[in-house]
Amino acid sequence: MIRELSTLKRTIGRTAGFFSIVFLIAFIAFLIVDIVLLSPPELVQSKLTTNPSLTLPIKPIEIPDQPDPSTDSAIVLGPDLEPGETGNNNQVQEKKFAEADKNKQVQKVAYLTFDDGPSDITPYVLDILREQQVPATFFVIASLAQNYPDYIRRAVADGHRIGNHTYSHKYRLIYSSPQAFIDDISHAEATLQTIIGYRPTLLRAPGGTVGNLSKTLASELRSMGFILHDWNVDSKDTMAALMPAEKIRENVVEQTKSKHVAVILFHDGPGKTTLPEALRSVITELKQEGYQFKTLDHLYQPIVAIDR
Ligand SMILES: [Zn+2]
């Protein structure tokens, strides 16, 4: 009886030991998956290696057609578009532009947009934009903007627009509930307002609206005065920790070809050291293709992938 009991104890002890090890392995695997796979790719950091030749002499620039930054609510109608258009905004715009193009009435427009900054890369991006004399829109993470307020102010002074890209950019937090999203972007709004002096109304959801925002939340955000923007050209610069400049250029030029209205997605987050070089080639090529560059304030109807 005693022997049986001690055998039973040993068996229980071994079984418990075995399950503890299995549990430990499962827990470690979960941590690895959680940290590596579920982190947003744009936040993958790599060591910053700046290219000193990119630092350009500061020269004043004048970018035409900028709305009054004190309001940040003016939406300027695109060429040959009437207010009140409905339906799929992207298609409506393309159709309208294509019709107008037959009569050579319309200008192709590229909207350069940069998400996930500011970072050490941002001044280099600003230098290229200044060199090329083109305006852009920066969807900034407000918690990072606090670390680099001067980059944000310089972007505004250079004629660029600042948009809200949440405060935390933490997917699990911001997409845990509609209220969590609203709280986070409201926090971002208040933070950005202290830096730039006005309310930034342009809003881009991290990862885009598809699969992240419901139609109900999107319409609530609009009723709060936010203007949601996705994109229709993806530079795919987050497909790897560091995409070669040439690959970024190819991705953008290829997708932009067929479009009169190109809203182009880049990321000026930490470590994106190939971005400035890629940006210079993209701008040069799109200029040759006849594109004009504007900030998103000039877009008649925002490109938003979720149904309206
Ligand atoms: Zn983002």
TrEMBL record:
Domain NodB homology positions: 108-294
GO molecular function (one): hydrolase activity, acting on carbon-nitrogen (but not peptide) bonds
TM stretches of this protein: 12-38
Alphabetized CDD domains for the sequence: CE4_SmPgdA_like
Pfam families: Polysacc_deac_1
Coiled coil: none
Gene3D superfamilies named among the record's database cross-references: Glycoside hydrolase/deacetylase (3.20.20.370)
Record keywords, A-Z: Membrane, Transmembrane, Transmembrane helix
PROSITE patterns assigned to the protein according to its UniProt record, in alphabetical order: NODB (PS51677)
InterPro entries assigned to the protein according to its UniProt record, in alphabetical order: Glyco_hydro/deAcase_b/a-brl, NODB_dom, Polysacc_deacetylase_ArnD
Biological processes annotated in GO: carbohydrate metabolic process
The protein's name in its UniProt record: Peptidoglycan/xylan/chitin deacetylase (PgdA/CDA1 family)
Organism: Heliophilum fasciatum
